[in-house]
Request: fold
Amino acid sequence: MGITYGYLDQFINELRSEGKYAFTLAEVRNQFEQSDEAIKKALQRLKKKKAIALVRNEFYVVITPEYRSKGILPPSLFIAELMKFLEKDYYVGLLNAAAYYGAAHQQPQSFSVITAKPSLRSINSNNLKINFYVKKDWAKDDIVQKKVDTGYINVSSAELTALDLVNYFDQAGGLNRVATVLEELCESINTDKMLDVAKRYVPITAVQRLGFLLEVILNRRDLSDPIKEHLKTVNYFPVLLRPQKERREMVTGNDWKVVQNIDIETDL
Reply:
């Protein structure tokens, strides 16, 4: 092999022929008897050519010709490999999950991934934004496998997506945007599944707020009534629709015990 760099080009072509778009530094080291310095130079050369990109320390993605101008692949094509490399359980959530149900409304500017503790540092470069949000746990039943060109990725079910959007409303662009997305997402929500997910969802305040939005703002009592019946069997307390620091009188006037302290308007 000498000082030629062709071995890495061949390695990348083989990866692509197997439908893979990601690799690690460890894989390259195992495959080739080259010094670390030689490998790093070869990787640097491919990075300059925009043939590969470094996403996380020692984790690279192969950039196919159609994505060269962007300088990166869509995260959905390598997120499963990245999370495997990081040894983290995960699912794609929030607006990115909603998009899989035809309810993104607008193209999300970043890619949202829910993962377990400890938290991961978000990835933020010129052309790649992956935000990681921590959750204590979730039920396997609430995750669905969605097909992408490189295999399958974990995505939250429509029902879990609805609750997560309310729970992480700030990260999803605010409650008006959440209500707009929910309006379209409702078409994919199953009433029985919605109740099941609501029963095990933490915090319960997200369940209250979602129920309120479904009934009062979106007029979807078919989805909200079963959740309301469930809430009658547990302890829950008054909350503001939009959390805020200033104290205010908690007069709710509804079964959800939600104080509507902001006006909600959907864009549809």
